[in-house]
Design brief:
This protein has 161 residues and is mostly helical. It folds into two domains: 44 residues; 75 residues. It is built from four helices and no strands. The chain is globular, with a radius of gyration of 19 Å.
């Protein structure tokens, strides 16, 4: 009986380690994405031209403002914090409930983003011949799908532990 409980403790420890490593990876990814959005908000231009969807004529569909970039940067920073501290117990039931909602919402949102709007963004977009479409097909949508996949793995690991 002791051997079984020791094996069970080791297995739970391994699961926590794996999900903890995955959560740190997601936290770093979100921190990096947040930093890029802050950079763009304050006038940086590196990589910016290839990040906005465009029509087949090359006209940008979006024109984000300073406020838009700051809001996205802070939301990504929040996502980073959620995954960095998701195993820590919270004092408030409201915060615990909010954390649980975010742990479900984040992977779901990124899954939706990877699928896209079926026209400009995502794996199933119709516009294929633009710079954005190239980067979306090879970088943005696969990254979103990977974030979603890892987020769901973390949820499964948390449920089992």
């Amino acid at each position: 009986m002791k051997k079984m409980s020791e094996r069970l403790k080791k297995e739970i420890g391994r699961r926590k380690y794996k999900s903890n490593s995955l959560s740190k990876i997601l936290s770093i990814v979100f921190l990096f994405l947040s930093a890029i959005h802050f950079y763009w908000a304050f006038g940086g231009t590196w990589g910016f031209n290839n990040t906005l969807p465009e029509t087949s004529e090359g006209i940008k569909v979006l024109s984000p403002t300073f406020t838009d970039s700051i809001i996205v940067a802070f939301v990504l920073l929040l996502f980073s914090k959620v995954y960095l501290f998701y195993q820590k117990p919270l004092k408030s039931k409201t915060l615990t409930y909010l954390k649980t909602i975010l742990l479900w919402l984040i992977p779901f949102l990124f899954l939706l983003r990877s699928i896209g709007d079926l026209y400009y963004v995502g794996f199933f977009r119709q516009i294929q011949n633009t710079n954005f479409a190239y980067f979306d097909g090879y970088l943005y949508s696969p990254l979103c799908l990977t974030i979603s996949f890892i987020g769901f793995i973390i949820l499964i690991k948390v449920k089992k532990a």
